[in-house]
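Hi R.,

As promised on Friday, here is the backbone we talked about, encoded as structure tokens. Could you run it through your design pipeline when you get a chance and send me back a sequence?
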């Protein structure tokens, strides 16, 4: 059975070894892109970068550990991430882009917010509910989130004092890094970031503390945390971990997660990015996730197709949330208050759904304030509409993911995701994921997301987002099939 491991390879070491200043992330980015342009040959779009690569030479020997512990590595990947979106995908190469499989989010025009939640937005605006609020969020919304999260746990562990409503996953991790690592009580060692991971999150941590990247292997949809556990020291101030990895969709092993939490020092803050932990079998989370030094981050971006709303929540120890209040009220005041009704209704209806409720009645009506003006009949109709849209969406996205992985599995090595809408595809024809993106875009018009942008350093790994209409996914697979066949034929000749 194949194991996916985002380890450092010879190509990354070669780039760092050729940099005149290996601490300059922009030089590393330009060397990486320069090699891509050089290998594109006559198809190069930026000959000046290719020439920079050709002029480079080896200056030093570099080890994988040096690369994984270097501040410049994190920033280099983030700068390459910026270049991909700003200068290539939506810049100079935009005219080549016909089919977009690189977005990382659900196509909201086909599977957007359920109508019930859209009505919450309209309701809040009609009531003019967009004034100042508690920096942790409105209490009813926090109560609803706590009850929903308790339904997902082995036993109830949360109340509203464990919850803060936030401005989405990326912002939350950034503000947590600032809150935890800027304090005088933070331990003095390196922060640990499991990879694969999302560059803005890792960069947010690296701006405030030295970071060591820890490659985590995944097999059969499960990520092993043993390398992360082995890397812990009493001086580790923070651990950043995606519980469902981006781009593999592999889920952390719950027993190993408990081992990580129990092994870490009480002064080590463990930040769990849970935003991709959906579109998979429902299961109970370990109560270890509610430990005093654990902070859990969720958002509406993936599971509810609303990345532009920048809304979510964090769960943490009551004392942590109380201290976070001061940080939040100083740095940004509070989240958009007109979104609290969406969060509250979503959390209540999700709890009813996962606990098997078929009809919302008097007891469910009593969970809402009388000022909402709800009736039992109106609430029940809204709940049924929510269930229908939610189940239809879940079935469609699961089917699309399975069908896409099956189609692409005939062309390349697919790491079938256990969760998430993303899948990691390894194309053996390439040993550089960015070159793979460029070649496929030029030959097929299909835009994939290079694996290096999520710290998958080795091989031709591409992330494919499967939450697209089937006609687009099928057309992309057909184009890739023709192009890969043509490339194989050319190689054989």
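Update: got your reply. Pasting your designed sequence below so it's all in one thread:
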């Amino acid at each position: 059975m194949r194991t996916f491991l985002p380890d450092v390879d010879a190509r990354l070491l070669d780039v760092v070894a050729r940099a005149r200043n290996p601490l300059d992330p922009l030089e590393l980015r330009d060397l990486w892109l320069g090699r891509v342009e050089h290998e594109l040959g006559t198809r190069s779009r930026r000959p000046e970068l290719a020439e920079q690569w050709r002029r480079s030479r080896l200056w030093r020997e570099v080890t994988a550990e040096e690369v994984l512990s270097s501040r410049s590595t994190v920033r280099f990947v983030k700068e390459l991430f910026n270049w991909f979106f700003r200068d290539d995908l939506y810049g100079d190469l935009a005219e080549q882009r016909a089919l977009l499989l690189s977005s990382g989010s659900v196509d909201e025009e086909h599977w957007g917010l359920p109508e019930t939640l859209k009505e919450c937005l309209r309701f809040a605006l009609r009531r003019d509910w967009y004034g100042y609020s508690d920096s942790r969020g409105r209490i009813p919304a926090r109560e609803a989130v706590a009850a929903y999260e308790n339904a997902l746990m082995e036993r109830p562990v949360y109340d509203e004092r464990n919850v803060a409503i936030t401005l989405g996953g990326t912002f939350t991790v950034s503000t947590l890094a600032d809150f935890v690592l800027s304090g005088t009580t933070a331990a003095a060692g390196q922060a640990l970031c499991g990879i694969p991971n999302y560059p803005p999150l890792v960069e947010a941590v690296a701006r405030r503390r030295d970071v060591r990247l820890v490659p985590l292997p995944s097999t059969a949809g499960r990520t092993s945390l043993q390398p992360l556990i082995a890397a812990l020291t009493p001086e580790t101030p923070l651990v950043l971990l995606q519980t469902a990895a981006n781009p593999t969709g592999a889920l952390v092993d719950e027993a190993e997660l408990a081992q990580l939490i129990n092994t870490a020092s009480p002064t080590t803050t463990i930040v769990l990015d849970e935003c991709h932990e959906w579109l998979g079998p429902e299961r109970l989370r370990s109560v270890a996730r509610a430990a005093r030094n654990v902070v859990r981050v969720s958002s509406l971006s993936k599971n509810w197709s609303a990345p532009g709303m920048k809304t979510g929540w964090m769960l943490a120890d009551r004392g942590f949330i109380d201290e976070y209040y001061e940080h939040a009220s100083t740095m940004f005041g509070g989240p958009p208050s007109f979104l609290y009704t969406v969060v509250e209704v979503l959390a209540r209806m999700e709890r009813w759904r996962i606990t098997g409720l078929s009809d919302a009645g008097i007891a469910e009506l009593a969970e809402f304030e009388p000022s909402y003006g709800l009736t039992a009949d109106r609430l029940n109709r809204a709940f049924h509409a929510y269930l229908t849209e939610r189940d239809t969406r879940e079935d469609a996205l699961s089917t699309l993911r399975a069908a896409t992985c099956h189609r692409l599995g005939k062309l390349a090595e697919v790491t079938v995701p256990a969760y998430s809408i993303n899948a990691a595809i390894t194309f053996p024809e390439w040993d550089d994921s960015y070159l793979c993106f460029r070649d496929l875009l030029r030959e097929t018009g299909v835009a994939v997301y290079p694996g290096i942008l999520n710290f998958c350093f080795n091989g031709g790994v591409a992330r494919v987002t499967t939450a697209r209409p089937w006609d687009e996914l099928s057309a992309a697979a057909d184009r890739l099939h023709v192009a890969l066949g043509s490339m194989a034929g050319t190689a054989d000749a």
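One thing I noticed while checking it: The CA atoms of residues 169 and 299 lie 5 Å apart.

Thanks again,
M.
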